[in-house]
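hey
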């Protein structure tokens, strides 16, 4: 599942308010990291943020679902980001910062 370079560039640009970030190609997608911890991912043409109990309701309220790995046969803690959030840099930064907090508190 390759990531289109134009889509990748768009996502990195939209995340301008949470820079600096690091990216790493992995498993056919891209992991997005802050301070060495993965808080987001791009798989194909879908951007996802890390979710736990502290922010899951926000994703569910707008009908988003977790990423499901067909190879692992289970869901993962990365949920699709709604277009309305993705297109608004301020709102995206707010959501991304919550996911960064989640990632940073994990050992």
């Amino acid at each position: 599942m390759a990531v289109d370079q134009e889509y990748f560039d768009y996502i990195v640009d939209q995340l301008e308010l949470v820079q600096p970030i690091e990216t790493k190609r992995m498993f056919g997608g891209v992991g997005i990291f802050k301070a060495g911890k993965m808080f987001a991912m791009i798989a194909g043409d879908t951007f996802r943020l890390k979710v736990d109990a502290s922010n899951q309701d926000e994703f569910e309220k707008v009908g988003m679902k977790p990423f499901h790995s067909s190879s692992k046969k289970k869901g993962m803690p990365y949920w699709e980001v709604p277009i309305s959030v993705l297109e608004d840099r301020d709102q995206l930064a707010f959501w991304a910062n919550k996911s960064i907090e989640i990632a940073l508190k994990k050992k």
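The chain has four helices and six strands. The mean pLDDT is 90.
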